[in-house]
Known about the structure:
Number of strands: 18
Bound molecules: flavin-adenine dinucleotide
Shape: globular
CATH architecture of the largest domain: 3-Layer(bba) Sandwich
Amino acid sequence: MKKYTEPAKEINIIGDYEVIIVGGGVSGLTAAIASSRNQAKTLLIERFGFLGGTATASLMNNINGFRNQVEPDNIQTVKGIPQEIILELYKMDGLGKSPYKQKEYDVEKGELSYSYCVDPEKFKYITLKMVKKSNAEILFHTYFSDVIMEENDLKGIIIENKSGRGALFSKVFIDASGDGDVAARAKVPFWQAKPTDIALKDGLMYKISGIKNALFGNCRYGDSSVVWGPANALGQNDAWKISQAEIKTRLRVYANFKLLLRSNPQLREVGAYVAETPSMIGIRQSRFIEGEYKLTADDAISGRRFDDVVAISSCPIIHYYGYRRFLEHEGYDIPYRCLVPKKVDNLLIAGRCISSEQQPYESHRSMAPTMAIGQAAGTAAALCALNNEKPRILDISLLQQTLISQGVELRKS
Ligand SMILES: Cc1cc2nc3c(=O)[nH]c(=O)nc-3n(C[C@H](O)[C@H](O)[C@H](O)COP(=O)(O)OP(=O)(O)OC[C@H]3O[C@@H](n4cnc5c(N)ncnc54)[C@H](O)[C@@H]3O)c2cc1C
Protein backbone atom coordinates (compact mmCIF):
# COMPACT_ATOMS: atom_id res chain seq x y z
CA MET A 1 0.00 0.00 0.00
CA LYS A 2 1.24 3.54 -0.80
CA LYS A 3 2.17 5.63 2.28
CA TYR A 4 1.72 9.26 3.30
CA THR A 5 3.62 10.84 6.22
CA GLU A 6 1.26 12.81 8.43
CA PRO A 7 3.00 16.02 9.58
CA ALA A 8 3.40 16.49 13.37
CA LYS A 9 1.15 19.16 14.89
CA GLU A 10 0.20 20.55 18.30
CA ILE A 11 -3.14 19.36 19.70
CA ASN A 12 -5.09 20.35 22.81
CA ILE A 13 -4.80 18.34 26.02
CA ILE A 14 -8.46 18.06 26.87
CA GLY A 15 -8.32 16.27 30.21
CA ASP A 16 -6.40 14.42 32.89
CA TYR A 17 -8.13 11.56 34.71
CA GLU A 18 -7.42 8.67 37.03
CA VAL A 19 -9.22 6.09 34.91
CA ILE A 20 -10.23 6.36 31.25
CA ILE A 21 -12.34 3.68 29.61
CA VAL A 22 -12.50 3.38 25.84
CA GLY A 23 -15.82 1.88 24.72
CA GLY A 24 -19.26 2.16 26.31
CA GLY A 25 -20.53 -1.34 25.53
CA VAL A 26 -21.75 -3.57 28.36
CA SER A 27 -18.22 -4.15 29.67
CA GLY A 28 -17.12 -0.50 29.42
CA LEU A 29 -20.20 0.99 31.02
CA THR A 30 -19.97 -1.48 33.91
CA ALA A 31 -16.27 -0.68 34.28
CA ALA A 32 -17.09 3.06 34.40
CA ILE A 33 -19.68 2.60 37.16
CA ALA A 34 -17.29 0.40 39.16
CA SER A 35 -14.32 2.73 38.76
CA SER A 36 -16.26 5.84 39.69
CA ARG A 37 -18.02 4.20 42.65
CA ASN A 38 -14.54 3.30 43.91
CA GLN A 39 -13.68 7.02 43.97
CA ALA A 40 -11.50 7.30 40.85
CA LYS A 41 -11.97 10.33 38.61
CA THR A 42 -13.34 8.45 35.61
CA LEU A 43 -14.03 9.21 31.95
CA LEU A 44 -15.90 6.93 29.55
CA ILE A 45 -15.36 7.46 25.81
CA GLU A 46 -17.83 6.14 23.26
CA ARG A 47 -18.11 6.57 19.49
CA PHE A 48 -21.94 6.48 19.47
CA GLY A 49 -24.27 8.86 21.36
CA PHE A 50 -25.59 6.21 23.76
CA LEU A 51 -24.33 3.29 25.82
CA GLY A 52 -24.62 -0.47 25.37
CA GLY A 53 -22.48 -1.23 22.30
CA THR A 54 -23.57 -4.54 20.79
CA ALA A 55 -26.52 -4.70 23.22
CA THR A 56 -28.09 -1.51 21.84
CA ALA A 57 -26.24 -0.29 18.75
CA SER A 58 -26.44 -3.80 17.28
CA LEU A 59 -29.81 -4.61 18.95
CA MET A 60 -28.46 -7.75 20.68
CA ASN A 61 -30.96 -7.57 23.51
CA ASN A 62 -30.69 -11.06 24.95
CA ILE A 63 -28.45 -10.99 28.02
CA ASN A 64 -27.20 -14.49 28.80
CA GLY A 65 -25.18 -15.98 31.59
CA PHE A 66 -26.31 -15.09 35.11
CA ARG A 67 -26.12 -18.81 35.95
CA ASN A 68 -25.80 -22.12 34.11
CA GLN A 69 -28.63 -22.62 31.61
CA VAL A 70 -28.97 -26.25 32.71
CA GLU A 71 -28.29 -28.07 35.97
CA PRO A 72 -26.15 -27.59 38.00
CA ASP A 73 -27.54 -24.07 38.23
CA ASN A 74 -27.72 -23.58 42.01
CA ILE A 75 -25.23 -20.72 42.05
CA GLN A 76 -25.94 -17.38 40.46
CA THR A 77 -22.51 -16.82 38.99
CA VAL A 78 -22.97 -13.16 37.98
CA LYS A 79 -24.22 -10.65 40.54
CA GLY A 80 -22.95 -7.13 41.37
CA ILE A 81 -23.58 -4.27 38.91
CA PRO A 82 -24.98 -6.52 36.13
CA GLN A 83 -27.63 -7.74 38.60
CA GLU A 84 -28.44 -4.13 39.58
CA ILE A 85 -29.01 -3.30 35.90
CA ILE A 86 -31.47 -6.19 35.52
CA LEU A 87 -33.31 -5.20 38.71
CA GLU A 88 -33.60 -1.58 37.51
CA LEU A 89 -34.94 -2.82 34.17
CA TYR A 90 -37.43 -5.03 35.99
CA LYS A 91 -38.74 -2.02 37.98
CA MET A 92 -39.18 -0.15 34.71
CA ASP A 93 -40.96 -3.04 32.98
CA GLY A 94 -37.94 -3.34 30.68
CA LEU A 95 -37.54 -7.12 30.73
CA GLY A 96 -38.95 -9.44 28.09
CA LYS A 97 -38.93 -13.19 27.78
CA SER A 98 -35.75 -15.09 27.12
CA PRO A 99 -35.91 -17.20 23.95
CA TYR A 100 -34.12 -20.02 25.81
CA LYS A 101 -35.41 -22.98 27.79
CA GLN A 102 -34.32 -22.29 31.34
CA LYS A 103 -35.43 -22.64 34.94
CA GLU A 104 -37.10 -19.37 35.99
CA TYR A 105 -35.87 -17.73 39.22
CA ASP A 106 -37.58 -14.94 41.13
CA VAL A 107 -36.26 -11.51 40.06
CA GLU A 108 -38.23 -9.86 42.87
CA LYS A 109 -36.14 -11.81 45.38
CA GLY A 110 -33.03 -10.72 43.48
CA GLU A 111 -32.50 -14.23 42.08
CA LEU A 112 -31.69 -14.12 38.40
CA SER A 113 -32.34 -16.80 35.78
CA TYR A 114 -29.84 -17.75 33.08
CA SER A 115 -31.01 -15.13 30.61
CA TYR A 116 -33.18 -12.03 30.04
CA CYS A 117 -34.39 -10.19 26.99
CA VAL A 118 -34.26 -6.46 27.53
CA ASP A 119 -35.93 -3.51 25.88
CA PRO A 120 -32.90 -1.88 24.21
CA GLU A 121 -34.27 1.68 24.67
CA LYS A 122 -34.81 1.09 28.39
CA PHE A 123 -31.37 -0.49 28.59
CA LYS A 124 -29.84 2.68 27.09
CA TYR A 125 -31.78 4.81 29.59
CA ILE A 126 -31.04 2.77 32.73
CA THR A 127 -27.34 2.33 32.01
CA LEU A 128 -26.89 6.03 31.19
CA LYS A 129 -28.65 6.93 34.42
CA MET A 130 -26.45 4.56 36.42
CA VAL A 131 -23.21 5.81 34.86
CA LYS A 132 -24.26 9.44 35.46
CA LYS A 133 -25.25 8.63 39.06
CA SER A 134 -21.82 7.09 39.67
CA ASN A 135 -20.31 10.50 38.69
CA ALA A 136 -18.25 9.11 35.84
CA GLU A 137 -17.98 11.59 32.99
CA ILE A 138 -18.98 10.56 29.46
CA LEU A 139 -17.58 11.82 26.17
CA PHE A 140 -19.88 10.66 23.36
CA HIS A 141 -19.31 10.82 19.61
CA THR A 142 -15.61 10.42 20.24
CA TYR A 143 -13.32 7.97 18.53
CA PHE A 144 -10.15 6.61 20.11
CA SER A 145 -7.43 6.88 17.52
CA ASP A 146 -3.96 6.48 19.01
CA VAL A 147 -1.80 5.95 22.09
CA ILE A 148 0.79 8.12 23.82
CA MET A 149 3.53 5.86 25.17
CA GLU A 150 6.57 6.38 27.37
CA GLU A 151 8.52 3.17 26.83
CA ASN A 152 6.08 0.47 28.00
CA ASP A 153 3.81 2.83 29.94
CA LEU A 154 0.56 3.95 28.36
CA LYS A 155 0.37 7.61 29.39
CA GLY A 156 -2.34 9.03 27.21
CA ILE A 157 -4.58 8.55 24.22
CA ILE A 158 -5.44 10.61 21.18
CA ILE A 159 -9.08 10.98 20.29
CA GLU A 160 -10.97 12.53 17.40
CA ASN A 161 -14.41 14.14 17.49
CA LYS A 162 -16.39 17.17 16.28
CA SER A 163 -14.05 19.44 18.23
CA GLY A 164 -11.05 18.03 16.40
CA ARG A 165 -8.14 15.94 17.58
CA GLY A 166 -7.22 15.97 21.29
CA ALA A 167 -5.06 14.25 23.90
CA LEU A 168 -6.30 12.76 27.15
CA PHE A 169 -4.09 11.59 30.00
CA SER A 170 -4.84 9.15 32.79
CA LYS A 171 -3.17 6.98 35.40
CA VAL A 172 -4.90 3.84 34.13
CA PHE A 173 -6.79 2.98 30.92
CA ILE A 174 -9.29 0.24 30.21
CA ASP A 175 -9.68 -1.05 26.68
CA ALA A 176 -13.37 -1.97 26.41
CA SER A 177 -13.56 -1.34 22.67
CA GLY A 178 -14.51 -4.96 21.98
CA ASP A 179 -11.84 -5.10 19.29
CA GLY A 180 -8.87 -4.31 21.55
CA ASP A 181 -8.19 -1.10 19.61
CA VAL A 182 -6.13 0.53 22.39
CA ALA A 183 -4.06 -2.55 23.16
CA ALA A 184 -3.37 -3.17 19.47
CA ARG A 185 -2.22 0.43 18.95
CA ALA A 186 0.00 0.08 22.03
CA LYS A 187 1.53 -2.96 20.32
CA VAL A 188 0.33 -5.56 22.79
CA PRO A 189 0.49 -8.91 20.97
CA PHE A 190 -2.91 -10.25 19.93
CA TRP A 191 -4.32 -13.16 17.99
CA GLN A 192 -7.27 -13.46 15.65
CA ALA A 193 -9.08 -16.59 14.54
CA LYS A 194 -8.79 -17.46 10.86
CA PRO A 195 -12.06 -16.61 9.05
CA THR A 196 -12.38 -20.29 8.10
CA ASP A 197 -12.22 -21.27 11.81
CA ILE A 198 -15.05 -18.95 12.86
CA ALA A 199 -18.23 -20.99 12.72
CA LEU A 200 -20.49 -18.24 14.01
CA LYS A 201 -20.26 -15.22 11.73
CA ASP A 202 -21.33 -11.61 12.32
CA GLY A 203 -25.02 -10.88 12.00
CA LEU A 204 -27.52 -8.09 11.59
CA MET A 205 -30.22 -8.25 14.23
CA TYR A 206 -33.38 -6.31 13.42
CA LYS A 207 -36.52 -5.35 15.24
CA ILE A 208 -40.06 -6.28 14.23
CA SER A 209 -43.05 -4.59 15.83
CA GLY A 210 -46.80 -5.01 15.84
CA ILE A 211 -46.61 -8.66 16.87
CA LYS A 212 -49.43 -8.14 19.39
CA ASN A 213 -50.46 -11.48 20.87
CA ALA A 214 -48.81 -13.64 18.24
CA LEU A 215 -46.78 -16.44 19.77
CA PHE A 216 -43.21 -15.85 18.71
CA GLY A 217 -40.08 -17.20 20.33
CA ASN A 218 -37.30 -14.69 19.62
CA CYS A 219 -36.08 -11.86 21.88
CA ARG A 220 -39.52 -10.49 22.64
CA TYR A 221 -40.46 -7.41 24.70
CA GLY A 222 -43.77 -5.55 24.60
CA ASP A 223 -45.25 -6.05 21.15
CA SER A 224 -41.79 -6.03 19.54
CA SER A 225 -39.15 -8.63 19.07
CA VAL A 226 -35.57 -8.60 17.93
CA VAL A 227 -34.74 -11.36 15.48
CA TRP A 228 -31.45 -12.87 14.45
CA GLY A 229 -31.34 -11.52 10.90
CA PRO A 230 -29.03 -11.98 7.92
CA ALA A 231 -25.66 -13.39 8.97
CA ASN A 232 -22.75 -15.15 7.34
CA ALA A 233 -20.65 -11.98 7.05
CA LEU A 234 -17.31 -11.31 8.69
CA GLY A 235 -16.11 -7.77 9.45
CA GLN A 236 -13.57 -8.29 12.25
CA ASN A 237 -11.59 -5.05 12.62
CA ASP A 238 -11.09 -4.15 8.99
CA ALA A 239 -13.08 -1.06 7.88
CA TRP A 240 -13.59 -2.29 4.30
CA LYS A 241 -14.70 -5.74 5.46
CA ILE A 242 -17.10 -4.22 8.02
CA SER A 243 -18.57 -2.05 5.25
CA GLN A 244 -19.02 -5.10 3.03
CA ALA A 245 -20.64 -7.00 5.91
CA GLU A 246 -23.07 -4.08 6.51
CA ILE A 247 -23.97 -3.87 2.81
CA LYS A 248 -24.37 -7.62 2.38
CA THR A 249 -26.62 -8.10 5.43
CA ARG A 250 -28.66 -4.87 5.11
CA LEU A 251 -29.61 -5.65 1.52
CA ARG A 252 -31.02 -8.98 2.73
CA VAL A 253 -33.26 -7.71 5.55
CA TYR A 254 -36.59 -7.68 3.69
CA ALA A 255 -35.95 -11.02 2.01
CA ASN A 256 -35.13 -12.39 5.45
CA PHE A 257 -38.35 -10.94 6.86
CA LYS A 258 -40.37 -12.53 4.03
CA LEU A 259 -38.95 -15.94 5.01
CA LEU A 260 -39.79 -15.23 8.64
CA LEU A 261 -43.41 -14.46 7.70
CA ARG A 262 -43.57 -17.64 5.66
CA SER A 263 -42.43 -19.80 8.59
CA ASN A 264 -44.49 -17.80 11.15
CA PRO A 265 -47.83 -17.03 9.41
CA GLN A 266 -49.23 -15.70 12.72
CA LEU A 267 -46.90 -12.69 12.30
CA ARG A 268 -48.45 -11.89 8.91
CA GLU A 269 -51.95 -12.22 10.40
CA VAL A 270 -51.28 -9.58 13.08
CA GLY A 271 -49.50 -7.25 10.63
CA ALA A 272 -45.96 -7.45 12.06
CA TYR A 273 -43.47 -5.22 10.24
CA VAL A 274 -39.75 -4.34 10.23
CA ALA A 275 -39.53 -1.43 12.68
CA GLU A 276 -35.80 -0.83 12.97
CA THR A 277 -32.42 -2.02 11.80
CA PRO A 278 -29.46 -1.49 14.16
CA SER A 279 -26.86 1.29 14.00
CA MET A 280 -24.24 -1.35 13.37
CA ILE A 281 -23.94 -4.99 12.38
CA GLY A 282 -23.15 -7.21 15.36
CA ILE A 283 -19.45 -8.05 15.36
CA ARG A 284 -18.97 -11.21 17.36
CA GLN A 285 -15.20 -11.41 17.58
CA SER A 286 -12.03 -9.83 16.28
CA ARG A 287 -8.78 -9.41 18.22
CA PHE A 288 -7.99 -11.38 21.37
CA ILE A 289 -5.39 -9.53 23.41
CA GLU A 290 -2.53 -11.58 24.84
CA GLY A 291 -2.57 -11.30 28.62
CA GLU A 292 -0.57 -12.67 31.50
CA TYR A 293 -2.76 -15.78 31.23
CA LYS A 294 -4.78 -17.18 28.31
CA LEU A 295 -7.97 -19.05 29.23
CA THR A 296 -8.05 -22.50 27.66
CA ALA A 297 -10.77 -24.86 26.49
CA ASP A 298 -9.81 -27.22 29.29
CA ASP A 299 -10.25 -24.44 31.91
CA ALA A 300 -13.82 -23.89 30.71
CA ILE A 301 -14.79 -27.53 30.29
CA SER A 302 -13.27 -28.75 33.55
CA GLY A 303 -14.59 -25.79 35.57
CA ARG A 304 -11.13 -24.67 36.68
CA ARG A 305 -10.81 -22.39 39.72
CA PHE A 306 -8.04 -19.79 39.98
CA ASP A 307 -6.56 -17.99 43.00
CA ASP A 308 -6.90 -14.68 41.17
CA VAL A 309 -10.55 -15.15 40.17
CA VAL A 310 -12.35 -11.88 39.41
CA ALA A 311 -15.42 -13.16 37.52
CA ILE A 312 -17.15 -16.45 36.67
CA SER A 313 -18.70 -17.76 33.48
CA SER A 314 -21.23 -20.57 33.47
CA CYS A 315 -22.43 -20.05 29.89
CA PRO A 316 -22.40 -22.81 27.32
CA ILE A 317 -19.75 -22.87 24.57
CA ILE A 318 -22.15 -22.00 21.83
CA HIS A 319 -20.76 -23.28 18.58
CA TYR A 320 -17.16 -24.50 18.51
CA TYR A 321 -18.07 -28.16 18.95
CA GLY A 322 -20.89 -27.94 16.41
CA TYR A 323 -23.54 -28.01 19.15
CA ARG A 324 -24.41 -25.92 22.21
CA ARG A 325 -21.99 -27.45 24.72
CA PHE A 326 -23.40 -26.90 28.21
CA LEU A 327 -21.02 -26.87 31.16
CA GLU A 328 -21.34 -29.78 33.57
CA HIS A 329 -20.39 -27.61 36.55
CA GLU A 330 -21.36 -24.33 38.19
CA GLY A 331 -18.96 -22.23 36.12
CA TYR A 332 -15.25 -21.67 35.60
CA ASP A 333 -13.19 -18.80 36.98
CA ILE A 334 -11.89 -15.91 34.93
CA PRO A 335 -8.52 -14.96 36.40
CA TYR A 336 -7.40 -11.34 36.75
CA ARG A 337 -4.33 -12.13 34.61
CA CYS A 338 -6.59 -12.45 31.53
CA LEU A 339 -7.33 -8.73 31.90
CA VAL A 340 -3.68 -7.69 32.24
CA PRO A 341 -2.03 -7.31 28.83
CA LYS A 342 1.48 -8.48 28.14
CA LYS A 343 4.20 -5.84 27.69
CA VAL A 344 2.21 -2.63 28.28
CA ASP A 345 1.60 -1.03 31.68
CA ASN A 346 -1.27 1.18 32.93
CA LEU A 347 -3.71 -0.76 30.75
CA LEU A 348 -6.43 -3.32 31.50
CA ILE A 349 -8.64 -5.21 29.04
CA ALA A 350 -12.38 -5.72 29.54
CA GLY A 351 -15.07 -7.42 27.50
CA ARG A 352 -15.07 -9.88 24.67
CA CYS A 353 -11.40 -9.38 23.71
CA ILE A 354 -9.75 -10.57 26.95
CA SER A 355 -6.94 -13.11 26.77
CA SER A 356 -8.67 -16.33 25.80
CA GLU A 357 -8.77 -19.22 23.40
CA GLN A 358 -11.75 -19.54 21.06
CA GLN A 359 -13.69 -22.14 23.11
CA PRO A 360 -13.91 -20.26 26.45
CA TYR A 361 -14.51 -17.03 24.54
CA GLU A 362 -17.68 -18.60 23.12
CA SER A 363 -18.88 -18.85 26.72
CA HIS A 364 -17.65 -15.69 28.52
CA ARG A 365 -18.54 -13.41 25.56
CA SER A 366 -22.14 -13.60 26.77
CA MET A 367 -23.16 -10.31 28.25
CA ALA A 368 -23.60 -11.25 31.92
CA PRO A 369 -19.99 -12.51 32.34
CA THR A 370 -18.78 -9.72 30.04
CA MET A 371 -20.29 -7.18 32.44
CA ALA A 372 -18.77 -9.01 35.42
CA ILE A 373 -15.38 -8.71 33.71
CA GLY A 374 -16.11 -4.99 33.24
CA GLN A 375 -16.83 -4.57 36.95
CA ALA A 376 -13.56 -6.33 37.80
CA ALA A 377 -11.56 -4.17 35.39
CA GLY A 378 -13.15 -0.92 36.61
CA THR A 379 -12.57 -1.80 40.26
CA ALA A 380 -8.97 -2.89 39.60
CA ALA A 381 -8.24 0.30 37.63
CA ALA A 382 -9.62 2.50 40.43
CA LEU A 383 -7.57 0.66 43.08
CA CYS A 384 -4.43 1.01 40.96
CA ALA A 385 -5.04 4.72 40.34
CA LEU A 386 -5.76 5.51 43.98
CA ASN A 387 -2.78 3.49 45.28
CA ASN A 388 -0.41 4.57 42.49
CA GLU A 389 0.17 0.96 41.53
CA LYS A 390 0.50 -0.72 38.16
CA PRO A 391 -2.23 -3.23 37.23
CA ARG A 392 0.39 -5.98 36.81
CA ILE A 393 1.30 -5.90 40.49
CA LEU A 394 -2.07 -5.02 42.02
CA ASP A 395 -2.77 -6.77 45.34
CA ILE A 396 -5.26 -9.46 44.24
CA SER A 397 -6.71 -10.04 47.68
CA LEU A 398 -7.52 -6.31 47.98
CA LEU A 399 -9.26 -6.44 44.58
CA GLN A 400 -11.20 -9.58 45.50
CA GLN A 401 -12.24 -8.22 48.92
CA THR A 402 -13.41 -5.00 47.27
CA LEU A 403 -15.40 -6.89 44.62
CA ILE A 404 -17.00 -9.18 47.20
CA SER A 405 -17.89 -6.23 49.45
CA GLN A 406 -19.62 -4.69 46.42
CA GLY A 407 -21.83 -7.69 45.78
CA VAL A 408 -19.76 -9.67 43.26
CA GLU A 409 -19.93 -13.49 43.32
CA LEU A 410 -16.46 -15.04 43.50
CA ARG A 411 -17.38 -18.21 45.49
CA LYS A 412 -14.89 -17.17 48.14
CA SER A 413 -17.20 -17.00 51.18
C1 LIG B 1 -24.89 -11.32 16.34
C2 LIG B 1 -24.55 -11.47 17.80
C3 LIG B 1 -25.35 -12.26 18.62
C4 LIG B 1 -25.05 -12.37 19.97
N1 LIG B 1 -25.88 -13.09 20.77
C5 LIG B 1 -25.75 -13.00 22.13
C6 LIG B 1 -26.75 -13.50 23.00
O1 LIG B 1 -27.77 -14.06 22.56
N2 LIG B 1 -26.57 -13.33 24.34
C7 LIG B 1 -25.46 -12.72 24.85
O2 LIG B 1 -25.38 -12.58 26.09
N3 LIG B 1 -24.48 -12.27 24.05
C8 LIG B 1 -24.62 -12.36 22.70
N4 LIG B 1 -23.65 -11.85 21.88
C9 LIG B 1 -22.34 -11.43 22.45
C10 LIG B 1 -22.38 -10.12 23.17
O3 LIG B 1 -23.36 -9.25 22.62
C11 LIG B 1 -21.01 -9.42 23.10
O4 LIG B 1 -19.98 -10.35 23.36
C12 LIG B 1 -20.90 -8.29 24.13
O5 LIG B 1 -22.00 -7.41 23.99
C13 LIG B 1 -19.58 -7.57 23.96
O6 LIG B 1 -19.54 -6.47 24.83
P1 LIG B 1 -18.22 -5.57 24.92
O7 LIG B 1 -18.52 -4.49 25.88
O8 LIG B 1 -17.03 -6.43 25.12
O9 LIG B 1 -18.02 -4.99 23.44
P2 LIG B 1 -18.97 -4.16 22.45
O10 LIG B 1 -20.40 -4.43 22.67
O11 LIG B 1 -18.38 -4.42 21.10
O12 LIG B 1 -18.70 -2.67 22.90
C14 LIG B 1 -17.58 -1.93 22.49
C15 LIG B 1 -17.94 -0.46 22.57
O13 LIG B 1 -16.79 0.30 22.22
C16 LIG B 1 -17.13 1.28 21.26
N5 LIG B 1 -15.93 1.47 20.45
C17 LIG B 1 -15.30 0.55 19.68
N6 LIG B 1 -14.19 1.05 19.13
C18 LIG B 1 -14.14 2.34 19.55
C19 LIG B 1 -13.20 3.38 19.32
N7 LIG B 1 -12.11 3.21 18.54
N8 LIG B 1 -13.44 4.60 19.90
C20 LIG B 1 -14.53 4.79 20.69
N9 LIG B 1 -15.44 3.82 20.95
C21 LIG B 1 -15.23 2.61 20.39
C22 LIG B 1 -18.31 0.69 20.50
O14 LIG B 1 -19.10 1.70 19.89
C23 LIG B 1 -19.04 -0.06 21.60
O15 LIG B 1 -19.99 0.73 22.27
C24 LIG B 1 -23.92 -11.72 20.51
C25 LIG B 1 -23.11 -10.93 19.68
C26 LIG B 1 -23.43 -10.79 18.36
C27 LIG B 1 -22.59 -9.89 17.51
